[in-house]
């Protein structure tokens, strides 16, 4: 009977160890689960912090004027708008170049003589128009009148007259000839259906 008692006494530690083993595995799994949960929480916090400034910047951009938004949100740009803007600057630069050349470009003697010839020819045509309107009895109170010619009309051409002087002569010719031109064109429109008669482009 003694051997049986010894066997029973030895079985107690075995049962104790089998009870402790599942408890240890559960503790390890619990720790692993806690570590994984902490990693997931950390990743989520980092992602949230990284996205928040981007969303805030976009919200601020959408509240800005349209010109600023067009620069910030490139995908909303209209190609036609970009083309027009680019070509517009080319035209403005070309106009500025032409304007600068008006001041710094020397005018040739041939161009000055061309101006002089055109002005003298204009005066002769004005006198002819005045005579034709008067002979046709077109508003004779305004057409059958004297025209006081300036002194330069009676003088021969020269090569020393300034461009400013030619501009003054051109303004005088336009002021005097204006009413005769208007009367002549009105006479033509009375017998024509062309409302653009005498139009100059």
Written account of the structure:
The chain is built from seven helices and no strands. Helix 4 runs parallel beside helix 7 (163-189). The chain has three domains: 1-63; 66-102; 109-189, no CATH class. Residues 1-23 and 51-55 have low confidence and may be disordered. With 201 residues, it is mainly alpha-helical. Helices cover 78% and strands 0% of the residues. It starts with a helix and ends in a 12-residue tail after the last helix. It has helices at 2-62, 66-72, 79-104, 109-135, 140-143, 151-154, 163-189.
Explain the layout of strands and helices.
Layout: H1 2-62, H2 66-72, H3 79-104, H4 109-135, H5 140-143, H6 151-154, H7 163-189
Brief description of this entry?
By secondary structure, the protein is mainly α. It has seven helices and no strands.
Number of helices: 7
Main beta-sheet annotation:
none
Number of strands: 0
What structural class do you assign from the helix and strand content?
A: mainly alpha
Strand content: under 5%
What count of domains describes the coordinates?
A: 3
- The rounded distance between the terminal residues' Cα atoms is 138 Å
Radius of gyration in whole Å, from Cα? Answer: 50 Å
Coarse morphology:
elongated
What tags apply to this protein structure?
disordered N terminus; 201 residues; mainly alpha; elongated; single chain
């Amino acid at each position: 009977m003694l051997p049986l008692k010894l066997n029973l006494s030895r079985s107690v530690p075995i049962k104790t160890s089998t009870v402790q083993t599942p408890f240890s595995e559960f503790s390890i799994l619990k720790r692993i689960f806690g570590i994984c949960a902490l990693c997931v929480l950390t990743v989520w916090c980092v992602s949230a912090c990284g996205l928040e400034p981007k969303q805030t910047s976009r919200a601020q951009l959408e509240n800005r004027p349209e010109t600023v938004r067009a620069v910030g949100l490139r995908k909303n740009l209209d190609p036609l708008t970009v083309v027009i803007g680019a070509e517009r600057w080319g035209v403005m630069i070309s106009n500025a170049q032409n304007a600068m050349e008006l001041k710094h470009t020397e005018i040739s003697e041939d161009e000055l003589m061309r101006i002089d010839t055109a002005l003298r020819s204009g005066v002769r045509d004005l006198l002819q128009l005045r005579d034709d309107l008067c002979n046709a009895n077109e508003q004779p109170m305004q057409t059958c009148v004297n025209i006081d010619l300036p002194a330069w009309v009676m003088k021969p051409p020269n090569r020393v007259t300034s461009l400013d002087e030619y501009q003054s002569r051109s303004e005088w010719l336009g002021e005097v000839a204006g009413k005769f031109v208007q009367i002549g064109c009105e006479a033509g429109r009375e017998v024509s259906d062309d409302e653009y008669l005498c139009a100059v482009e």
